[in-house]
Amino acid sequence: MALSPHSYNLIDKDEGSFLARPSGTQLPPDTSPFGHELRIGLITHFDQHDDPTTLYADNVRLAQGLEELGYDSIWIAVRHFHAGWAGAPSVYSVLPAFAQATSKLTLATAVVPINADDPVRAAEDLATIDALSGGRLLIGLGKGVPSDSYKVFTSWREDREAVYLRDVEKLHWALAGGTVQGGTGHLWPADPSLSGRILHGTSTIANVIEAAERGDGVLLERFGGGDERSVQGRERFRQRQVETLRLYLRRYRERWGQSRTPLTAISRTAFPGTLEEAAKATEHWNRADIDLGRLDGNLTQEEKFLADNFAWGTPGQLVDDLLADPSLYLSDEVVLGLHPARLTVEETLAKAEILIQQVAPRLRSAWHERRPAALAQAYAGSEDLLTDKPRRDPVPVSV
């Protein structure tokens, strides 16, 4: 695969059926599209307003606008029950519209709560959409934002961790076109290529290790929990995340050597604008966080934003804040966002233009300069792990 600076192409579509060929993490580092340039994405929570008759069409316009601006990807925040005002409960209905309205933009999910779905049906839908989009999907999987209402789903089980790992394994099996035990049917369309474009959206160390062992990527959250969600805890959150990425990279190399390519992404809020503008745009979110006890109501507005890992300011101030985050240099993609600011599509695109034109170039430049040292620190003492490793046996799947 010929690589070009921040290429949009996740796969090479010039040679036969791309769904059957390895992609992404399945490839060795010299041919994988990941890890050569810092990819820049933008996340949408479908929270511009509450009118579903126009909300989805508005976000199609957003995707088209981001493609025109030169973003590598658009990420869809998936939430059931309109949690956090997020209005996209299903990627299977939204992604096809994005696929038809764009031609180059990577279409990513953050995240599909796979344990609320049937993973085999999910594989059928995702493979179909991947074919429709020309191989532009990047799938973040997760367990979903905790809710006491998930029990309404037929597939829901209380043991989220065990069910999640089982469902991820079954999803991979289905994408590979697995044959049903005791039957003659096999999954169609098969899309083993998409297995190289899967990330685990998690902060759980066990899941991070499982992702490395499986050969999948990881997507880390934008803010911390517990005492990390405080002004003083912000740096602890950043340090925890960079240590998580180091662990993932080392475990990945231990398992796979140079036969596969790790994939890492982080999510960060970056709001180009004044403190007053940001406060007005996020008033609904801050009020809800205080009512729920997630934020201290006695904090100043500036302290509230810092506790929420919400960066604001001029392009130069945003660059300085993002470059002070050590996780940036171990990430293959940074997913920027304006959330929880509530803006129109036009307002979002205006700020997205500032980010891609005035912030992204400086991030990419610093990433190139500092990434080698960051990787060397992550892999310190692992020189003996450079040889190719055999693929592990998957967890058996019964269907």
Kindly describe this structure:
Helix content is 40%, strand content 13%. The protein is an alpha/beta fold. The protein has a single domain (18-145, 152-383), classed as TIM Barrel, CATH 3.20.20. Strands 1-2-3-4-5-6-7-9 form an eight-stranded parallel barrel, surrounded by seven helices. The protein is globular and about 65 Å long. The two termini are 36 Å apart.
The level of helicity is: 40-55%
- Quickly give the structural class: alpha/beta
DSSP summary, beta strand count = 9
Which shape, going by the Cα principal axes? globular
Total domain units: 1
Following the backbone from N to C, one meets helices and strands in this order, namely EHEHEHEHEHEHEHHHEHEH
CATH class identity: Alpha Beta
Alpha carbon gap, first and last residue: 36 Å
Strand order of the largest sheet: 1-2-3-4-5-6-7-9
Largest sheet: 8 strands, parallel, barrel
Which regions contain 5 or more consecutive residues with pLDDT less than 50? 1-8, 383-399
Mean pLDDT: 90
What is the correct CATH architecture?
Alpha-Beta Barrel
Radius of gyration: 20 Å
What is the number of helices? 11
CATH superfamily: Luciferase-like domain
Beta-strand proportion: 5-15%
CATH topology term:
TIM Barrel
